[in-house]
Design brief:
alpha+beta; Nuclear Transport Factor 2, Chain: A; 2 domains; 279 residues; 58% helix; Butyryl-CoA Dehydrogenase, subunit A, domain 3
């Protein structure tokens, strides 16, 4: 197999994820296909070695989608179809699948966000992309990328079309913390998405964790019996926990009743900028 053939095979393996990212960014199956195809063309033209092809392509697709959203805004095009609108003729089946997987209510709220807010929210909260990587896409600092996602998250969770979801997500986190305190490994596993990712900043990692941890069993093992000092809190619009004894904030992303991402923040400057409300 030649190098080009191997690269093409890797790209095809990653295509479903890239298309999912683009669909959630753009709200259109046809435009998502265009964005993914453009990513392939850029990959084919770029002969530099890539340490992490998946991350590189996710970043490229994010940039392409961001440009498409900005162009859409600058041309003052019509917004995305509202809830209940008929799927476009480009690919009705894919549009319905997108609505089912994300929810038309969420798509409508996403359309009210700025392009940068939408990208930061989708990449971080739906696909667990780090703020360091998102910062590269939007051309801002990681802290600024975090704020973009935070503003977007608050607008999404405060949206009138999502009644009760914030409460249900908080209940999932509360159950997770209780299971952690009791050392209930089985319950922890049931509350975590199989591909959950936990990221810790440098300060939090020095407390005994790792910069990044992936997989339900590994994350469950880390939290098993540990959350004794954690108190339920609202962290930047996300259900979370705060450990006052060590000044540590944990923000949980919950999708469809499963925890998909946990962000541990202990850097004093970042904590000062975060909106934290104990519950």
């Amino acid at each position: 197999m030649t190098g080009d053939e191997a690269l093409a095979r890797q790209f095809e393996e990653l295509r479903p994820r890239l298309r999912a990212v683009a669909q959630r960014m753009l709200g259109s199956a046809a435009e998502a296909d265009d964005a993914v195809q453009e990513a392939w063309l850029r990959l084919a033209r770029d002969d530099r070695e890539k340490d992490n092809l998946a991350a590189w392509l996710t970043t490229v697709v994010g940039r392409i989608c961001l440009d498409m959203l900005r162009a859409r805004t600058s041309r003052r095009e019509d917004p995305l179809p509202e809830a209940g609108a008929t799927a476009t003729a480009d690919d009705p089946e894919q549009e319905v699948l997108l609505a089912d997987s994300v929810g038309m209510a969420l798509l409508v709220v996403l359309d009210t966000l700025s392009p940068a807010e939408r990208l930061a929210f989708v990449l971080h909260d739906m696909f667990a992309v780090s703020f360091d990587d998102i910062a590269v896409v939007v051309g801002k600092s990681p802290a600024a990328a975090r704020q973009l996602a935070s503003r977007a998250r608050r607008r999404v969770q405060d949206g009138p079309a999502r009644p009760g979801e914030q409460r249900r997500n908080r209940e999932v986190v509360a159950a997770f913390l209780q299971a952690s305190r009791c050392g209930d490994f089985g319950t922890l596993l049931t509350l975590l998405d199989p591909d959950v990712v936990m990221r810790a900043d440098e300060t939090a990692a020095r407390m005994g964790g790792h910069g990044e941890t992936r997989g339900a069993e590994v994350v469950a093992a880390f939290f098993n019996g540990r959350a004794t000092g954690a108190r339920l809190a609202d962290i930047e619009g996300l259900p979370g926990a705060f450990v006052a004894a060590v000044n540590l904030a944990l923000a949980f992303t919950v999708i469809n009743g499963k925890i998909t991402a946990i962000e541990a923040v202990a850097d004093p400057e970042d904590l000062d900028e975060m909106a934290i409300r104990l519950i």
